[in-house]
Every structure is written in structure tokens, then in C-alpha cells.
Write a structure and sequence with these properties.
The complex is a heterodimer. By secondary structure, chain A is mostly beta strands. Chain A has one domain: Porin. Helix content of chain A is 13%, strand content 59%. Chain A has an 8-stranded antiparallel beta barrel with strand order 1-2-3-4-5-6-7-9. The longest helix of chain A has 13 residues. The relative contact order of chain A is 0.19. In chain B, the strands form 2 sheets. Chain B has an 8-stranded parallel beta barrel, surrounded by 4 helices. Chain B contains 8 helices and 11 strands. The two termini of chain B are 35 Å apart. Chain B is an alpha/beta fold. Classes of the chains: A mainly beta, B alpha/beta. The interface between A and B is medium-sized, with 34 and 32 residues.
Chain lengths: 167, 280
């Protein structure tokens, strides 16, 4: 995750000379792939957007869901390919177990303009590895269907943000 | 005053959100060794490791799942999960005999002060083909095999003053009917019947509609929480049954489902993770 953040910062810096805008708001979802309300911030350096999502709802149950996602624009209408990582850190007796997920999906804007920025995303989140809290590290395996069928989950989220972009 | 009331409601809501469910932890396929390896499902070494797991000086688990598989080609009752176990040829009664020895040892046999839960699943097919079901004669033979396991466990529970509950569970309601039809005159250890609602077709073709269990006194409907629909959950509760969960790999979605639906038991191979999550 730290490496990914470093890569994202470098990528964002490289693209800073392009037509960039910042955005900040809420990441909301109805499924259980992560907490229902989180805080998202990012930089849109068309055609690549980089965002990070953090989780104040950790205070409610000790689970922390953080996303680092890139969205690469695929069409003039704003459809984009979403790729990135999600770390879910779960508090258990004696420590925290982390579940590292690969997130792939597609996203599209909803028809509102600046200063609002609203996007919908459909995702497949795959747990690649579970580790921490003195429990054995457990990588995804494809030996049998039972070994991975629970590790791939689909979900959707909507982001409501303020953006510095101009109409 | 109004602000104080709103604050009290907010605090109550926050506390409610923090409520931690405390389901029984059942060891799925008697395979709770670490890290999880499905290839070791329903094998005696994994069974022994699972019984020996401890947390804070007490057993991690509150119960264990024992599968029986009726192999139709030579009519034998095996301790096996599926065809991958066929080379083993372990009799279905073998883990029950070891469980009886476990009951005789000193010390607690569950994490809490609950009866030890023995989940006896009767596998619904008789060969590698999941559409290859029992003949009427095989239904009776498999049911008697399950009662043989029951007797070993029950005798040991009584002899060692252990509280035990036994559940006969199957994807096949006709097997549960055969269990009732072949029940012995005396059943001193409490037993219940359970239905399973697993991964749906086309991923897995074993689950049958709950209506197929009509007429059976089902008191546990075991769902895979990632595939359970709210309507199915409501239907199970409306029928008077309780709900339990089984799954293969624990994810944050599983934890969310346990918090939302509060099953009375969870059947997992990641027993230590589940115990530490419950006890946090």
C-alpha cells in the first residue's frame, strides 16, 4: 500500500503539468464491501484520475477501509477504467488483520457539473492476501473453486465531491 | 432538553453499532489448521489439529463438523467431503471414536459454557457426479451410518458428563427423512435437523428449495452469507428455524453479514480468526 501511494504521488506529480483539478467529498455505498460512508480526495489529471479514500467509520467497529484507485478515462463521456488497491484492516483480539484487495471496475459520471462531481463505479474486489495479528499469511489460491469463490466480491459505490474544475 | 435527547439517541445508536455478535464457532469440515488448506477437509490429522486449537487456555471451537459420504459403488460409509477424499477410505465413524476420546480428557471442550455442537453432514451424492443420488436402500444405509456416529458420540457424552448437541444436516431432505425413519428407540443426547442453502447454481448445484424440506422439523437453516437473499433469511426465520452460516474464506463482507444477521452459529475453517474477532 505504501509503495502504491508513492507511485500515485509520483504519477500525480508527473501529470501535474496537464489540465488538472482537485476533488474532495464522500464515497458512499450500500453493499458491505467497505464501510458505507468514507472520505475521498483526489487529483484529476485527464485522462488519469488518482484518488485516495479513507475511513472515519473505523470509530464505529474498528474496521478501516482505505482505497487507492486510479481511473483512466476511456471515452469523451467520462466512462473510465478503475484499478487500484483496497486495504481492509480488521481489529481482532491481539492485533489487526489486513486484507489486501485488488479493485477493478468501470466508472461513469452522473450529469452534474462543477462545483459538484458525482461518479458511479461498479467494482470487483479480490482479496489477494490476508496477514497480520499473529495469524498465518494466507494468499489467494486457485486450486479449487472453494479456495477463491468467497474472495471475489462485486460492489458499487457513488462519490459526491466538490471539484476545482471549471465548467 | 431536545439536544440532550438527540445526543442520547446518537450514543445509543453508536453503542448498538458496536454490539458484537457471539455465535457458536463450529469447525468447518473439521479442518481448522492454519493456514487454511481445503485439501485437508475431513481428514483425521486436520480433525485432531482442530480439536487441539486453544485460545486463552480454552478450546477455540464450540463444535465440529463431521461429514459422512455414502460411496455407492461399493456401499461404504466414509469420512469424506467429496471425490478428492476417495483414496483415503476412512470409515465415517473414525472421527467419532476420536471425539469420544476427546470427551474423556479433563478440561473444557468448548470456548464458552455451551454444549459441544456436533454437526453431522450427510453428503447428498454417492459418487463424483453430484447428480448421482442415493437409491432408497442407500438412503436407509446412510441414515443408519449417521446413527452409528450419533451413538458413539452420545455414549461418550453421557459417560463423561459432557453436554452435547448433535445436528443431522444435509442438502438432501430425503436423507433427513431417512434419518428420522431409522431413528433408534432411545436418543438420550439432543439432536436437531438442519437444511443447507449454499452457493447457488450454476456455481454449485446441491442446494434445494426450502420447500423441499416441508414436513421435516428443521430448526437450523445454514446459509452461505454471501449468497443469501433477505427473503430467504426471512423465510427461514418465519418457518421457526434459526439461521447459521458457513463459508470458505473469511472476508470483510462475511464479518458484515454476521453483524447484520447475527447467526446462532458460524461454520468456518478460520476458527481462530473468528474467535479473536468475536472476543475483541
Amino acid at each position: 500500500m505504501r509503495l502504491s501511494i508513492a507511485v500515485a504521488i509520483l504519477l500525480t506529480g508527473r501529470l501535474a503539468s496537464a489540465d488538472t483539478s482537485a476533488h474532495l467529498g464522500l464515497n458512499l455505498r450500500a453493499d458491505s464491501g467497505a464501510h458505507p460512508a468514507r472520505v475521498i480526495a483526489g487529483v484529476d489529471a485527464d485522462p488519469v484520475d488518482v484518488s485516495i479514500t479513507l475511513d472515519p467509520m473505523v470509530l464505529t467497529d474498528g474496521q478501516f477501509d482505505a482505497d487507492l484507485l486510479t481511473t483512466t478515462r476511456l471515452s469523451d463521456g467520462g466512462w473510465g477504467l478503475v484499478a487500484g488497491l483496497r486495504t481492509t484492516s480488521i481489529g481482532i483480539l491481539g492485533g489487526r488483520q489486513s486484507q489486501e484487495k485488488l479493485v477493478l471496475g468501470i466508472g461513469a459520471p452522473l450529469p452534474v457539473g462543477p462545483p459538484l462531481r458525482v461518479r458511479w463505479t461498479f467494482e470487483a474486489a479480490t482479496v489477494l492476501v490476508k496477514h497480520g495479528a499473529d495469524l498465518p499469511t494466507d494468499w489467494i489460491s486457485f486450486e479449487t473453486g472453494r479456495a477463491f469463490i468467497d474472495l471475489i466480491n462485486f460492489g458499487m459505490f457513488i462519490t459526491f465531491e466538490l471539484t476545482s474544475a471549471h465548467r | 432538553m431536545r439536544i440532550a435527547s438527540l445526543a442520547a439517541v446518537a450514543v445509543a445508536a453508536l453503542l448498538a453499532a458496536c454490539d458484537q455478535p457471539h455465535p457458536l464457532v463450529i469447525c468447518h469440515n473439521a479442518n481448522c489448521g492454519e493456514p487454511t488448506d481445503p485439501e485437508r477437509d475431513d481428514t483425521l490429522p486436520a480433525f485432531r489439529e482442530s480439536l487441539a486449537l486453544e485460545e486463552d487456555g480454552r478450546p477455540v471451537i464450540d463444535g465440529i463438523e463431521l461429514d459422512s459420504f455414502w460411496r455407492g459403488s461399493d456401499d461404504v460409509c466414509l469420512y469424506a467431503h467429496d471425490v478428492s477424499n476417495f483414496a483415503e477410505n476412512t470409515p465415517a465413524t473414525a472421527p467419532a471414536i476420536e471425539l469420544a476420546q476427546h470427551f474423556a480428557k479433563a478440561g473444557p471442550i468448548t470456548f464458552g459454557d455451551t454444549p459441544f455442537f456436533v454437526l453431522l453432514e450427510l453428503k447428498a451424492s454417492v459418487s463424483a457426479n453430484t447428480h448421482d443420488h442415493h437409491t432408497p436402500a442407500q438412503l436407509a444405509l446412510h441414515a443408519r451410518c449417521a446413527w452409528d456416529i450419533y451413538k458413539i458420540v452420545s455414549d461418550a457424552a453421557i459417560a463423561n458428563h459432557r453436554e452435547v448437541t448433535i445436528e443431522f444436516q444435509s442438502f438432501a431432505p430425503e436423507l433427513l427423512r431417512a434419518v428420522l425413519d431409522n431413528a433408534p428407540a432411545q436418543t438420550p443426547t439432543p439432536f436437531i435437523l438442519g437444511a443447507v442453502q449454499g452457493v447457488p447454481s450454476p456455481f454449485d448445484d446441491q442446494s434445494r428449495p426450502l420447500s423441499d424440506y416441508t414436513g421435516l422439523p428443521i430448526t437450523d437453516v445454514q446459509f452461505h452469507p454471501l449468497w443469501m437473499l433477505d427473503a430467504q433469511h426471512e423465510a427461514a426465520l418465519t418457518s421457526g428455524a434459526e439461521v447459521s452460516f458457513f463459508w470458505f474464506s473469511t472476508t470483510s463482507e462475511i464479518f458484515a453479514a454476521i453483524r447484520r444477521y447475527e447467526p446462532f452459529a458460524v461454520d468456518t475453517s478460520e476458527a481462530r480468526l473468528m474467535r479473536r474477532w468475536i472476543q475483541r
